[in-house]
Predict the 3D structure of the following.
Amino acid sequence: MPSILIVDDEPIICQFLSLKYKKEGFDTLTAKNGKEALSICKQSQPDVILTDMRMPVSTGYQLLEELKNFEDYKPVIVCMSAYADLSLEETFDLGGTALFNKPFAIDDIVGATKKFLEEKGIQSASQYAHTEYIHEQQISLLSEISPGIIHNINNHIAYISGSTYLLKKYLEDEIVNQPQNTALQNALKYSEKIVSHSEMITKIIKSIKMLAYPNTKRINKEKSNLLNILENTKYLLEDNLKINDIKIQINCDKEITINCLPELLIQVFINLIKNSCESIAEQNLPERWIVIDCWTENKVVQISVTDSGKRLPIEMQEQLMKPFYTTKNREKGIGLGLSISKKLLEIQYGSILYDSFSENARFIVILPLTE
C-alpha cells in the first residue's frame, strides 16, 4: 500500500489527517517540521508528502528545495498554506504537485492525492483490492472460455497446417522443373515458416492442456540445449525483426543445457523479444538492437534480454508482471504476455525480473541448470 508523510507543526492536524488517510488504506508518517521530514524521506521515501509551508526550525520551502537534490526519488508533493503568499505556479516551481489553502475540505485533498497516485500507477489498499477483484473476474472468465477457444484454435491450425503442407509439396515439385525461379523459392521459404509456426502453436496448445492438470510436477520436462531454444525463437521472429530493422545478437555457450518444456520456454522469449520490437518501433529509436546474454552461476543459468530502449520508470516496473497491465496501446496488447511468461517459468522452476539498474530496458530470466 502507498505511504504518505504528513508534515505540520500543529499535532492535531497531523493526527486528523493521519487517521483519515489510514482509513483510505495508506501507511502514514508524521513530522513537525521540514528537518524531521527530510530525515524520514531519506530513510523511508514515502510515496506522498503533504506539507505545510510555514513551520519553525525548517519550513516547507526548505524541505522542497532539499528534495530537488534527490535524483531517484520523486514523490507526489501536496502543499498546504494558511496564507495567500504562495501561488500554484510557485508551487510547481518548487516541485510541488498541488496546492491547498487552509482551511480545506479533507475529502478534496484525499481525493486529489489518490488521483495523483493513480497517474503514477500507485494504488491505495482499497483501490488495489478492487483492481485485484476485477483481475480475478477476468481470469475466471478466461478459464471458462479457454477450452472452447483451444478446440477452435486446433481446428483452424489443422486446416492451416494441412493446406500449407500441400502448398509446400506443390512448390517443391515446381522448383524441380524451374530451379531458377526466385519467386517460387521465396514462396517455398514462407510456406516452410507457416508450417514451423503451425507446429509450434500445436505444441504450445498441447503443453497448455497438460498444465490444466493440478499436479504439474508430472509433466515430463526435456533436457534441452539453451542456444537451440534461443536460435529457434530468433528464427520464428525473423520477419518481425526484419520489418522493424532490428539487429539481434545472441551470446550463449552452446554447452548450456536445461530441463524444461521447450515450446513454452520459446513462448517466453517470443513475448520478451516481441515486446522489445514493439517498444523500439514505438519510440522510433535511431539505434535498434536486442542483445541476449547467458551466463551460469550457482547451479542456475541467467538469460538477459536487453534492448536499445530506455529503462522504464520505477512505478511502471512494479506493475509489469500484473495481469492486464500494459505500457502499450490496447490495440497492440491486453497486458497478459509478461504475467503468462512469469507463470510459464514458475512451472519450470524459473523466474523473471526486470533489471532496474540497467540503463536500457532489460529483463532477466533465471532457470535451473541440468544436474
